């Protein structure tokens, strides 16, 4: 089998933004510029899974996610580039056509829509059936798990390298927090570097604080394989800006997305990065954070920006 496709993960750039809220200095880490399938944190995680897929000589990939899922788009693209079959289990509730779902089909993945309470059993049954026919490989939704966490330990180390090179420190790192693996990886990097002079703030795109923090803590424990009670203060998960759930947004978020595009030429989206950027600014104002170096992690999702166009252009 010809395992072509993705390249070894490259470091992503950090540069300054025009944002000036509360006299802070804003920077952005451009994981949206990772050079596979429109980039983003899912592409960074997928590279880790790809290495394991190749090592295990799998010939089919099974994963799950919504019709807006950047993860499913990246995995479907990766499977196609590797010459593997791909199956996407997706909850049928409120399933809508998006640029991501259209590309998933273009990549030849099979989308299996089921009620949300049947997703788990459908995955189990599919994997059990495939084990008799081929070598299936299961990837949890959002790239959750130690491979996904490890991808963002790498990203944290890249941030540290930038700080050393430029002789300054980020006081805050903000990001969109969904399944929690990206934030868990950054926190693991923080713990491994014994680097506690900054806060990593996850802006929830859907989950409430209890569930969001719980999943992040579990991911950190799984990755570090030790008790982390001394590091629970590192887990900062803010659920004040979810607007009642996944893929929910308002005009304020649309205005922030438009402002960043017009001033910095960077496309955010209402589902993840735009909501998180808006939440970051609100958090900074609410907590009167001033004169700090602030890094925003652009976790990507460019195709979702085009789904938002109807709201941006009126």
Molecular structure report:
There is one protein chain. The protein is an alpha/beta fold and 314 residues long. It has two domains: 14-41 and 145-312, Rossmann fold; 43-143, 3-Layer(aba) Sandwich (Rossmann fold), CATH 3.40.50. The chain is 43% helix and 16% strand. It is built from eleven helices and ten strands. The chain has helices at 41-56, 70-82, 99-106, 119-130, 146-166, 181-192, 209-224, 251-264, 273-286, 302-307, 309-312; strands at 14-16, 25-30, 60-64, 85-91, 110-114, 136-138, 172-177, 199-204, 236-238, 293-298. The strands form two sheets. Strands 1-2-10-7-8-9 form a six-stranded mixed beta sheet. Strands 5-4-3-6 form a four-stranded parallel beta sheet, sandwiched between helices. The radius of gyration is 19 Å and the shape is globular. The termini are far apart.
Classification by helices and strands: alpha/beta
* CATH topology assignment of the largest domain: Rossmann fold
Question: What is the CATH top level name of the largest domain?
Answer: Alpha Beta
Hey, roughly how much beta strand do the residues contain?
A: 15-25%
Number of helical segments?
11
Count of DSSP strands? 10
From the N-terminal CA to the C-terminal CA, the straight-line distance is 49 Å
Strand order within the widest beta sheet = 1-2-10-7-8-9
Helical amount:
40-55%
Determine the oligomeric state from the structure: single chain
CATH architecture of the largest domain: 3-Layer(aba) Sandwich
Overall domain count: 2
Overall mean pLDDT stands at 94
Spans of at least 5 consecutive residues whose pLDDT stays below 50 are 1-5
Largest sheet: 6 strands, mixed
Taking all Cα atoms into account, the compactness measure Rg is: 19 Å
Shape: globular
Order of helices and strands: EEHEHEHEHEHEHEHEHHEHH
